[in-house]
What does this fold into?
Amino acid sequence: MKETELEQYVCSLLPRVGINKLRELTRLVYEICKRERVAASQVLQPSENLTFESAKKALLQRRYPINFKTASKNQFYLPKLDLTSVAPADLTPRPFSPKTVYIEQSVRHSALAQRAREFFPHATFRETDGKTQVGSHDFSQRTETLLIHREKYDFLKPCPCSCGSAGCGYNLINLGFGCRFECEYCFLQQYQNLHAVLLPANVDEFLAKIEQGVFRKGPFARPRIGSGEFTDSLVFDDLTQYSRQIVPFFQKHPQWDFEFKTKSVNIGGLLQAGGCENVVVSWSVNAQKITDQVEHFTPPLSQRLQAACEVAKAGYRLGFHFDPVIIYDGYQNDYARTIEEMADTLPKDKIAWISVGTLRFSRELKKQIESRFQTNFILDGEFLLDFDGKMRYSEQQRLEVYRFLLPLLRKTFPKAVVYLCMEDPQIVRQF
Ligand code: SF4
It folds into this structure.
């Protein structure tokens, strides 16, 4: 049933309720129908005694069976249902092959610009002064445009973390913006205004800024610096070859740890650069149901673990991020199976750290996900507005995840630092 039909159906049962109340009920009916795969008539039936209050109470109870009694009223987020203002994601498999490549004049002779000409012989190449508006209207078409530019301002910063969360003393360099993978939960679909892939050609300037930097250490032995906030650190590495500049730099600077964060198996550059003990290559890992059904275009878990073994053999240390953990029926068995697969495959003494974080998202991102991935199951959980304005599972459900995963990970990988990511300090203190 389309959203307008759903609204008409609810209106036919409660013709006197105002528009805002009607929208709240429509959203609840929609979310229940989607999760339970039933028709609206099985969720809300005509009744002589039906009022807005009774309908809303019954629907909230059914939509939030775990948290209905304990959550406060303003934690339920019930905006107007709007599935049509954002186009559905295009999930047709395709190689990364931009139709148009923009190159800023100041980096027209860079090695990256030269490689792009070799990689994409059929693309249209245009020079830009850096002020031209580039990119597609549709987020799904972002990989059709590549912009190679010179970064001027945003070189190095402390990880912004989430307002009010416990920080882990991380420092970031933003080597690129935009990704060719299509994870349903990715915050870029809501955050990225410019629907294109942006890659800086002046990595040397990033490294020079690191040399001048003063870093926080957090709970780790050495300060950590990482890339991969606005893109996957290695997904374009065959083109960018950033790893071949970054690894030699950190070979000379053993006082810092550098982390590549990836879901890709694009490790050729790392293998050629030779190993480095203070470079940690981290993979995002998850239950196989999530890697297969939610992280579109990404390599399967087994391939990620295989790539991890190869880089460990080459002399790098490893990191893993169980992030985002997603709760669904049987999730504990599936996550335990992933940990078992990791234990059977990986050299345990090479694992530097493992983080765990549950799915969280802004209100705006929720709307993007439900429009772009209309058959998603990741939003079927019970998400409540939380301490920082983001939507999260309730504290009780998050604690259940952490009480299960953290002891299991610490027992399986006793030498790794296992920590929580972007979590309420009160929760972090318990682990
Ligand atoms: S790999 Fe990371 S950056 Fe790329 S789509 Fe997935 S979540 Fe987003």
Remarks:
- Residues 179, 181-183, 186, 188, 231-232, 263 surround iron/sulfur cluster (CB under 6 Å).
